[in-house]
């Protein structure tokens, strides 16, 4: 009996030891199993190359929004997104982008000017078709055609513009002035400003794209009033800028009544000077609203059509979509790039983004209230006093900026500028035919 009890106790101890050993093995196996699960669920890592030419003044807003997108993509798709973002200035952004695309160093997403660039970039095969993306169905009816080509949506609109010239509301109100609708009325406004020792116009010609703004304003207004066939004739090598030589009347008036040191003042300095009240008017667009209000958050400015002659029907607001975001056809990260473009027009978060950029609503789901200068420009458009930004070869726009710098500096005459622009447009026609 005693031996039997000892034997039973021994068996019990052995069984317990085996059980403990087995339990220890299972416990040891758990961390390994957990590690395997962690390895399987490790996030996919994607670096998006984003090229935002001319948007360097909005770097903080975009970087913040991209960080929000990265959190969203990690949470919803377990994709860890990092950004390689570039913000080159307006002066050389276009040339840098074209070089990148031509050499195969392609950004996943890049900014383009909707009116100026979409036709050429699409024909060259650089723009992916985004028609099936959710954001496309949200675009406002008036916006969608401007970011489309060949019946395909190819970009997300950022800056929807209604512009002419900016004016200081306080100065105008203090002197009892109203935005002029004819050149004669503009001359009267200029005279009253001069009489009160106030500089009528801010000149900021350090960057050539700023004097270039006279071109779309002049051509757009005249083509939609007194010279309806100008662009068609130019595209057929049958026209000349001599046909619309009257555009120099407003240019001469501005140049003769502007601030000093025009070639020392660029866009940023110009925004600060305008915000400080150094001039009553600026031939510039509301895309500078953010920079102006950063310099003076109490600044009140308006937007009005730029008069070109004494026909009120030629004083029209330019309606356009400029900065837009496109996806490269050969992007290596199409899924994530598409997700980002859709997030740009997210039903909720995009309201904050567009407000922070001081941009107009472009989505049917945008609910934020437009800014006062937007509503003022829209009041002209609602009366039919507007035109769609004219389609002018980008090379002509580049050239006119430089030519008008030289014209202001008296290194080129009116006839010199006309001959130069005529030649540049003909060269653009020839290049388009070869293409």
UniProtKB/TrEMBL annotation:
UniProt protein name: Probable sugar-binding periplasmic protein
SUPFAM superfamilies in UniProt: Periplasmic binding protein-like II
Keywords tagged on the record: Signal, Transport
Pfam family, one: SBP_bac_1
Species, as recorded: Paenibacillus aestuarii
Keyword Transport: yes
Family: Belongs to the bacterial solute-binding protein 1 family.
UniProt function note: Part of a binding-protein-dependent transport system for a sugar.
Compartments (UniProt record): Cell envelope
Signal peptide: 1-21
